[in-house]
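Justification of computing resources. Each target in the renewal requires a structure prediction run like the one illustrated here; the chain below, 245 residues long, is used simply to show the kind of job we budget for.
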Amino acid sequence: MIRQLMLGGVLAMAVGCGGLEDESRDSWFVVNSAESAGDGLVLFDVSLYATSYETNPSGDCAVLSMTAQATVNGKSADIRSRGSKFQKFKQGCEPIRFTGVAPADSEKISFRLFDLGLERVVEFQNVFEPMSMRIVSPEDGVLHPGQTLVVERSPATDTATAFSGGPATFEQLSFFSGEQQFHFNHGFVQDGNRLSFTVPTEVPAGEGFIALEGDYNSGVTRCDFTRCSFSRRKSSRVPVVFAAP
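Resulting structure tokens:
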């Protein structure tokens, strides 16, 4: 009977010892990677992790049966690891892991795991949509030192990666004027997919651009585990004019 599930690469999870139907354990579904497989396809590497020894002293781990199956967007996936019993010297379990392909233009990516009559599903949206950014204020794109700059990024379903539910830690705005670059990744205000910054006073006047870069989790439309994540590096830039003080 399956007690915990885990997906690694881009997905990781941890499930309890009562099988897929047991929701008493923490679980984390993670997509480890998504790389080109040629012919317009993307290869996904996914893992499902069991609970740690500290949170699960009994050492129960998820182990798939030999009849278990996994799919990516309805197509059969290859199960690379069915998991392992708890290994005390590692203070954990080997993750369940599978790989599968889906078209690179898919609007949604759906991962399904079947075992012993039970099914668990994870779905992400706008996975391959590139990030774009627009200036909300000032509308004319002329930035004055000390002025508040408001930008909006898309897709709005993406969320900046954060540690343990804390504030976003992998999102950075840079100001470029001429050949000079100024990083600005602290003290900004976030409201959904809108970010507010104060234009640095040290940026010289002239034409330039602003660039936003970060690690973003794709929007989750279904997650049959405690947590599901699919993080990808994205960036965007917009031309601006920096005004003199």
